């Protein structure tokens, strides 16, 4: 799993590349647990190259969601592959998290 | 057709396990989503066996066997760790997990929703998890 981030103004875009499982999800948890992330108003997660997610990967997002909501930080996923989106859907997480098709759509929602 | 692999209880082996499931089931011509779901179900059970049942003790092993025919895919996982007690399992409430900031606890729920039947048994010192996916 490779994690890159890009910062523009009040937005951090996190790009995930690889597979998020019980082994690799530790890296993502460290990234989202970093106190500096709370300085941003918007966290966009680019899932274009995220090829796989297990419950451990979902669990990382689940565990941070309330903290981000409490701080009024928007968490938006985009470019998600169908098979990865399906895993969110199995648990109904697609209804509790914001998942959109494209970067442009993510930016529009983030600026609403 | 039956394929079998034995791996040590190290979470780094989950990637190897997923590659084995992919290679074994490629001839079945499942949709990308169904194949990914079955890979996920195997990954979830293996992660639980490695982390919880065997405490990531790499001297211990687990055995994965996949049988596939025209009608069904049967997946068996065997290990010698602490058995999973299905009677003690409680389906998670995702809203509660979000409120509590809980990381774990949704893997078995995924498995139960993906597979058509999941059975747990113990034979001597061996725990067996058998999962079925019907194709017809």
Automatic annotation (TrEMBL), chain A:
Enumerate the Gene3D superfamilies for this protein.
STAS domain
Q: Where is the STAS domain?
A: 1-110
Short name of one Pfam family for this protein? Answer: STAS
Signal sequence residues: none
GO MF annotation terms? anti-sigma factor antagonist activity
Protein family (similarity comment): Belongs to the anti-sigma-factor antagonist family.
The protein's name in its UniProt record: Anti-sigma factor antagonist
Give the species this sequence originates from.
Answer: Rufibacter latericius
- Source taxonomy lineage? Bacteria, Pseudomonadati, Bacteroidota, Cytophagia, Cytophagales
From TrEMBL, chain B:
Q: Which Pfam families match?
A: HATPase_c_2
Keywords from the named record = ATP-binding, Kinase, Nucleotide-binding, Serine/threonine-protein kinase, Transferase
Molecular function via GO? ATP binding; protein serine/threonine kinase activity
- Domain named Histidine kinase/HSP90-like ATPase: residues: 11-132
| The keyword Oxidoreductase is annotated on this UniProt entry | no
By its UniProt entry, which InterPro entries does this protein fall under?
A: Anti-sigma-factor_SerPK, HATPase_C_sf, HATPase_dom
- Which sequence ranges are marked TM in the entry? none
Q: Which Gene3D superfamilies match?
A: Histidine kinase-like ATPase, C-terminal domain
Q: Which PANTHER family match?
A: ANTI-SIGMA-F FACTOR RSBW, ANTI-SIGMA-F FACTOR RSBW-RELATED
Task: Please give the name of this protein.
Answer: ATP-binding protein
